[in-house]
Amino acid sequence: MxxxxxxxxxxxxxxxxxxxxxxxxxxxxxxxxxxxxxxGISVALQGTxxxxxxxxxxxxxxxxxxPGNYTLVAxxxxxxxxxxxxxxxxxxxxxxxxxxxxxxxxxxxxxxxxSKSGEFVQPIGSTATKMxxxxxxxxxxxxxxxxxxMDQMQVIRLDDAMRNVSGVTMETGFGGRTDIFQxxxxxxSTESIFKNGFRNSxxxxxxxxxxxxxxVMKGPASVLYGVSDPGxxxxxxxxxxxxxxxxxxxxxxxxxxxxxxxxxxxxALNDEKTLKYRMNAVYExxxxxxDFVATKRFFVAPAFTYDFSDRTSxxxxxxxxxxxxxxxxxxxxxxxxxxxxxxxxxxGEPDNVGIHQNRLxxxxxxxxxxxxxSLRHASNFTYSSEERKVVEFGSIPKNDxxxxxxxxxxxxxxxFERNYATQNELYATFKTGAALEHKTVIGVELAxxxxxxxxxxxxxxxxxxxxxxxSSKPKPTKLNFGDDYRDKTQLYGVYVQDFLSISQKLxxxxxxxxxxxxxxxxxxxxxxxxxxxxxxxxxxxxTAFNPRIGLLYEIAGPLSVxxxxxxxxxxxxxxxxxxxxxxxxxSDLYEAGIKSGLLSDKVNIKAAYFNITRGNVAVTDPADNAxxxxxxxxxxxxxxxxxxxxxxxxxNVIATYSYxxxxxxxDTKETNIGKRFRGVSKHSGSLWTTYELQDGAMKxxxxxxxxxxxxxxxxxxxxxxxxxxxxxFDATVYYDNQKYHAAINLKNxxxxxxxxxxxxxxxxxxxxxxxxxxxxxxxx
Length: 780
Hints:
The chain folds into 2 domains: 1-108, Immunoglobulin-like (Sandwich), CATH 2.60.40.1120; 237-779, Maltoporin, Chain A (Beta Barrel). It is 4% helix and 59% strand. The chain has 4 helices and 45 strands. The strands form 9 sheets. It has a 22-stranded antiparallel beta barrel. InterPro entries: Beta-barrel_TonB, Beta-barrel_TonB_sf, Carb-bd-like_fold, Plug_dom, Plug_dom_sf, TonB-dep_rcpt-like, TonB_sidphr_rcpt.
């Protein structure tokens, strides 16, 4: 697989050299005075045939432009025409941003529809810097999965999209009922999945219907976001209201019996177009490839934007999700042998119950003081709850000569979580001297959360996993006390960042953040002698300072080199034998790489070396194994390569490869040193490519496909045995025009037997067998 990828890279470089570098490219983004993206704005080079229109995010690209001086013109109904003088050089890319004022003599409403959900490849992101910037100028590894790419893949769950991000391994979390990934070898918990820049900690699968794009920033993100997993963060950007009226209705179904109608519509609610809306709604029902794991889901996400003036706007978004799906920990391995059973085999019961609810409200208030300063004030509130009563794996019986039986338990559990956060940020864009440009942000974040859980459990029966007999006995009515606790956390953070451009060639990214983290844990304990409960309260406080330094230099034409160093932190909950609270675990990232644009910047290549060390890891105290000490260290080192772009007209590609060597480097147990991380493949890669007809009667017809490939992965922390490597192939045929869109996707074409991931030897999730998924939709 790696040899094939190198062949593709070599081919692209040969093509790049063979084709004379006589053309340039202009790209950018157009927003209103209220900083909202403008769809359907015409962007053209005056006096030429070169031109295009902006997509839903206000982005545009004009390609294959001969060198010379031009006048770039942006026009739109109801907006003042703006002109910029630009100089295009051979083999270069110019980035031009427009702020388009509204016209005092706006015309009547024009209904605009589009057959595309933005560009296949998005060149501009905001996660790494908290402000929009071309990814090619940011000295850190960031990958974006666009809405258009998600539509072609028919993404239903978040991991469907994440399979095409380099260095990401699928993970199973919380009994296979939420989104968990491993990035660059490190498990990325729910603490490192964000929505519109806010932490989005929930214990169920996030809905994808209202996602506009997914940004994955590699490495610790503490410099801007506080608590961070070492491997990276995932930031989901949601669809926003638009002044243009549109409706999109579609129906998706698959061969497992699942169907999923969805609607997306929006527009302006008043003649002045100062009040806009967007509404996404989904209903999902049907079976999955796993026995006893049916799904029923209802989701609705309204969003409104109100423009108080040409300088001030407020956007309010909400999400309401009800999701019924029983938890599922997969299958087991006994004595290092994974049970050879169908991918559908369940250790649960037909009447297992899981009820999940998620509620979210966000608002974002923006005010522009002048051409230099602007202010953002935003808040986020989420509430989630989970109720589950399930029969699931409990333990392996002793002395089972057949290696075929498991002891099951009944667990009755309820938990809920509340999160509130507010961010206040001041932005400044200015110059000091003729050659130095600044983009600066100063911010303050306050966040609080509460997680409450209780559960009771009892042994139920013994199940033969090769010949299961379900519902063999009545469920116990009296369960044993399991646990009952409540965690309250507070986070206070202040941060500053300056993104400097020196003579357009050298980019310097400087930033730092200081955090205060506080925890109050209240745990109920049971006195078995008196059968009474008592509450025990413990507190913990940690502080952290995390800087970042990044440099990027444009060597020549499209080729840039970059490097960065950043620190991150995570609270380490617990106490030493002496009663002292743990310090936060720390992470250090060293990264260096290249970014290059080929074929007049139509194809982007990124390659990066990374080294991430996590210190202050709690490990077993050699003096008393009932306690821990913070002397552990783990390290992940590797290489990543990505190719994204339009190789020829209509042919789009996302190709990735990663090598990850993740191991324990310090531990109190000598036998642990050198062991690989659970669930991490040394070699992994992916390819997704589509070709779409650009002209003629069948314009909009496309075909495509690709693969995801992973090497073997340790099943548990002891690396006692491994999940086998695999390569899964997928394919698609689709049609997309101004009014209709349809697609048929074939997943796991060769019906390969594989495993998505594991939490332990007794929680291994089989991958889905071959399946068909289809979508048909209409736009008005």
